[in-house]
Design goal:
The protein has 350 residues and is α/β, with parallel strands linked by helices. The chain has eleven helices and eleven strands.
Length: 350
């Protein structure tokens, strides 16, 4: 088997969710000895995985061969290219977790099957640190796009307990800073919005870090930070009934989830007094190792019913032009252009 991986992340330096998905999937395939190539025409390979490139979705429609797609191509079905043929009905769209599948189905996606697939976590990169009740208490607070009042209330609760804390703000740290903060802390309070997978949270769990997750209840718990370099995506109000989570992959070994900050004080006391009973790294090992996730990816190709017939024509170039033409019909594209223009003017005035 040789897998043709279509991804825009190959030469990206900045660490983002899609970059982690690409890198960790490749690491897992390497460990399994599965061969793969990158960004080749779809007609040349039997097994194609379109990780995040919408141009290749157009190409897949022309080629007419079943493919794996996702999980980083589009936020919602309406963001998929309009100027394309339908995907082969045996194709599979990959979503990081079940609530994302529910959201897509409610949004009317019926073009092909959908399977949940979370990428694996690099346990060698985020190593185990033993935490015991005898360690000095220090709490890491991770904050991502929630109401600042929740953060302020959390800080006050921790201060009232005379516990030292440090804060990691999403989008304002480097990976080495994150690792250092994890290594210095005994417990993490995670204040995040809805997560399709939650890779950073799972990396923390892989170090053995027990968690108190202040769980998001809806897509609209997310609060835009309006910081430079951040493009805010607007969710349709029709999706306000979708049940989401800040930690879709989590069990009792990892810590506790709470929906009400009034439960935070008691949860901190409980966690710090019983820190030895939690074993989040075992949860990651059993459910989200690199090898397990990549094996799951490979196994999904067996369900595609791939036609062995070779498609001679290469649609890669025409798909590229259709993709850029397609952007003219996307509302978000004009918002993005305005966003970029404002940032350019701001940079020029400094």
């Amino acid at each position: 088997m040789v897998i043709n991986i279509i991804s825009t992340q190959l030469n990206r330096k900045r660490i983002t969710g899609p970059k982690k998905v690409f890198d960790n999937a490749c690491k897992g395939l390497d460990r399994m000895g599965v061969k793969y190539v990158l960004n080749k025409p779809l007609n040349e390979y039997k097994y194609n995985w379109i990780h995040d490139d919408s141009k290749a979705i157009i190409e897949a429609g022309f080629v007419g061969r079943p493919v794996l797609i996702g999980p980083n191509t589009a936020v919602l079905p309406k963001d998929l290219p309009i100027l394309r043929k339908s995907l082969h009905s045996d194709s599979v769209y990959l979503s990081p977790s079940q609530w994302v599948i529910d959201m897509w189905k409610q949004s009317g996606f019926k073009e092909c099957k959908m399977h949940s697939w979370p990428v694996g976590i690099d346990l060698d990169n985020f190593v185990l640190k033993k935490r015991t009740t005898n360690d000095l208490d220090k709490i890491l607070i991770y904050f991502k796009q929630r109401d600042k009042n929740i953060l302020n209330h959390t800080k006050q609760i921790v201060k009232d307990k005379n516990i030292e804390y440090q804060i990691i703000h999403y989008g304002f740290y480097k990976e080495e800073e994150y690792k250092k903060a994890l290594n210095e802390s005994k417990l993490c309070i995670w204040i995040g919005c809805s997560e399709s997978q939650g890779i950073a949270l799972q990396e923390a769990l892989s170090t053995g870090m027990p968690m108190i997750v202040l769980d998001a209840k809806s897509l609209f718990d997310a609060v835009s930070e309006n910081k430079k370099g951040y493009f805010d995506y607007k969710m349709p109000k029709s999706l306000d009934n979708i049940k989401v989570s800040s930690a879709p992959y989590f069990d009792d070994r990892c810590g506790v989830k709470i929906n009400d900050i009034d439960k935070l004080s008691a949860s901190i006391d409980y966690m710090l007094s019983n820190i030895d009973i939690f074993n989040p790294r075992d949860y990651i090992k059993e459910n989200l190792s690199l090898e397990m996730a990549s094996q799951s990816l490979v196994d999904k190709f067996s369900n595609l019913n791939i036609n062995k017939k070779t498609i001679l024509r290469d649609y890669k170039i025409v798909s590229k032009y259709l993709y850029y033409l397609d952007l003219l019909g996307k509302e978000w594209f004009y918002r993005w252009l305005l966003f970029k223009l404002k940032n350019t003017i701001w940079d020029g005035s400094r």
